[in-house]
Amino acid sequence: MTYDDIEDRLAAEYQDRQRQAADLDYIRRYYRLERRHGIRVAIGGRVRSHGQEGTIVDTSGQYLMVQFDGQEQPARRHVTAHMEYATTHGWAAATPVADPYATALQGA
After folding, report:
1. Edge to edge, what strands does the sheet with 90-93 contain?
2. What is the C-alpha to C-alpha distance for residues 75 and 64, in angstroms, rounded to an integer?
3. What is the pTM of this model?
4. 10 Å Cβ neighbour count for 24?
5. Contact 12, 4 (CB under 8 A)
6. What is the mean pLDDT of the chain?
7. How confident is the model over 18-70, as pLDDT tens digits?
8. Sign (positive/negative) of CA torsion 14, 72, 31, 101?
9. How far is CA 48 from the centre of its chain?
10. Do 54 and 47 meet the contact criterion of CB atoms below 8 Å apart?
11. If DSSP states are collapsed to H, E and C, what string results for the chain?
C-alpha cells in the first residue's frame, strides 16, 4: 500500500466520521430521544426492529444503518419507525416527534 493509498483511506474515514457526527447530532436534536425516552443514539448501539436485534453501524441522513444479527448487509431504518433501543434500564421504544403542522391543520 502506498502513502497516497493510506492518505486517501484516512481522509475517507475522517469524512465518514464527520458525516456520522453531523447525522447523529441532527437525530439527537430533532427527535430528542435522550430527553424523552432515555435513549442515546450512537454508532455501536444495540437496537431492535420488528423483534430482530442488531447494531447501529452507520448513518444515512435521518436514517440509521443497522447490521441485524445473522444478516450479511446492513439495513436502512428510520430512527423512530418500529425501533427499540437498548438502554441501561432495558429496551425503550422510540416514538415519533409530534408534527406541529398536523395539529394546526386539525384545528383549521
Report:
1. 75-78, 63-68, 52-60, 46-49, 83-87, 90-93
2. 8
3. 0.83
4. 17
5. no
6. 91
7. 999 999 999 999 999 999 999 999 999 999 999 999 999 999 999 999 999 99
8. positive
9. 12
10. yes
11. CCHHHHHHHHHHHHHHHHHHHHHHHHHHHHHCHHHHHCCCCCCCCEEEECCEEEEEEEEECCEEEEEECCCCCCEEEECCCCEEEEECCEEEECCCCCCHHHHHHHCC
- Lookup: cell for 106: 386539525
Q: What's the grid cell of residue 74?
A: 446492513
In the predicted model, what is the mean pLDDT of residues 8-23? 94
Which CATH code for domain 3-106? 2.30.30.30
C-alpha cell at 95: 416514538
Nearest to 43 by CA among 28, 71, 21, 62: 21
